[in-house]
Design goal:
Elements lengths: L8 H10 L7 H26 L12 H12 L5 H24 L3 H12 L5
Helix pairs in contact: 2-3, 2-4
Length: about 120
């Protein structure tokens, strides 16, 4: 498991200590967790913009230029040019792959939310 897969620094260090492994400093762990949350928020915002009817083509496909414009307005303050482009491309690629799954399982996002909160106790 990667360090960021653990819910807390304590859980991470305890698991690694049991295996006799060294750990990264807590400041780095916290920074990595923060970046993971930021990436998740970026993707969540993108999904929100994709859901808007105004960001769809007449055939129902995603108008990525409109999504890019909406995302850039919100995220360009935090992410500079190339970094923003890299995040956008990665999130769009993930969403396009997930889109195939969402077509087959249209309620998957809601079911995942219930799974995370009710069964796994994740309240992020």
């Amino acid at each position: 498991m990667q360090a960021t897969d653990y819910n807390s620094y304590t859980a991470y260090t305890t698991a690694k200590a049991k295996l006799g492994l060294q750990v990264i400093p807590q400041e780095l762990f916290d920074s990595l967790k923060s970046q993971d949350r930021m990436i998740a928020q970026f993707k969540s915002d993108m999904l929100g913009f994709i859901a808007l009817a105004e960001n769809k083509e007449a055939d129902g496909s995603i108008n990525w230029n409109f999504i890019d414009a909406d995302m850039y307005v919100k995220w360009s303050v935090l992410l500079e040019g190339e970094e923003y482009t890299n995040w956008f491309d990665a999130a769009a690629d993930d969403i396009e792959v997930e889109g195939d799954l969402l077509a087959r399982y249209p309620d998957a996002i809601n079911q995942l939310a219930v799974l995370k909160t009710d069964f796994l106790g994740i309240n992020e």
